[in-house]
Amino acid sequence: MKKRKTAAAGILAVVLFLFQPVFLIWGKTEEPQNLYALSAVLMDGDSGRILYGKKEEVPRPNASTTKVLTCILALENAPGDDYVKVSENAVLQPEVKLHMKKGEQYYLEDLLYSLMLKSHNDTAVAIAEHIGGTQERFAKMMNKKAEEIGCKHTHFITPNGLDAKDSGGEHCTTAHDLALIMRYAIQNKTFLKITQTREYSFWNIGKKRQFHLRNTNALFDMTDGVISGKTGFTGNAGYCYVCAVEKEGKTFVVSLLGCGWPNHKGYKWEDTKKLLDYGQKNYEYRSFWIEPALPAVPVKNGVNEDGRFGKTAYVLPELTIGEQEKNRKILTGKKQNLSMKEKIAKELSAPVKRGQKIGEIVYCLDDMEILSYPVYAAKTVKKITYRWYVEQVFQSYFH
């Protein structure tokens, strides 16, 4: 009998051990598993918040995904009907290229299609020299723009993303920075029009040569809702990819760096689909607004409302937020907690001016602050002065 009990206990222990992982993960959100990319990001295209990251702050070479920023700088700094003259430097760029000839001229807009649809390296240099004067000056413009967008660890040297080094280090970015660049780029309607074009034909100025381009962004044929994307590959960078996809009102940005080397060209598509699937299943739009109960704040040495001696002065907090903002929804994990904190001064010192900031309300997603709104003083409270004391005494004893 004792042996049977021992055997039964052993079997139970084995069963519990085998099923232990199920008990541990039940009710938790499963993050994407076994990504090929060395660095990856899934970003909320609306807020710029990272929904999933893998070594997202590690700088790495990023190949032709660089051309997203090259395109944006061109769109923001010159009209599409500008004439672009091709230099010898542009002609000497390695494949992949349009095979332009020195001295030829092209419309800038046509070259932007060449840049984004087929990732031509000679086109990138011709554009950079036209916008910046030289490739080096254009690189300075790129790094300045990246900083304005919010990039922290980006250092670009070439407009086409070819591997390079200078005194500032390697040509590189991070998965986080690259996602920020794409998030910025998709706000430009012309950028979207170019990158969504499936086929495009154009001539050089003078109509001596015609070119026909097909978009290399294969994600268009793998899923719906793709609004932009750019591939890249160099020996140092490996396969890279950045894209933006809109599904059911949700805009996701995916960036991948070091996503395999030959012969693993398809890894980037597998990783992209995993990240998009994760975002679609686990995130939804929710109302965030919680109406705050803002108490009146005492004002030290302040003249109270009725101007009487001995009474504490108070100022009411004021929020200047419209209904449209209050009704806005934000993308959150289905199991994440939304909360609101009131960070209002417990006491103020006179004088207080109407419209003076006296605190803020902060909205949190779990423990992360995601939104904040300033709180202002609704009225002016003057400071008690010697003259005010004299007037109080006069009013009290002589009237």
Name its key features.
11 helices, alpha+beta, single chain, disordered N terminus, elongated, 32% helix, 399 residues, four-stranded antiparallel beta sheet
Give a written overview of the molecule.
With 399 residues, the chain is of the alpha+beta class. It contains 11 helices and 20 strands. The strands form 7 sheets. The chain has a 5-stranded antiparallel β-sheet, with helices on both faces. The protein has a 4-stranded antiparallel β-sheet with strand order 15-20-19-17, with no helix packed on it. It is elongated, with a radius of gyration of 30 Å.
Strand content: 25-35%
Radius of gyration from the CA trace? 30 Å
Between the first and last Cα atoms, what is the distance in angstroms?
105 Å
Structural class: alpha+beta
The helix count comes to 11
> What profile does the largest beta sheet have?
5 strands, antiparallel
Q: How many strand units?
A: 20
User: Rough shape?
Assistant: elongated
Strand order, largest beta sheet? 2-1-11-10-9
> Please, what is the average pLDDT?
90
Helix content: 25-40%
Unreliably modeled segments: 1-28
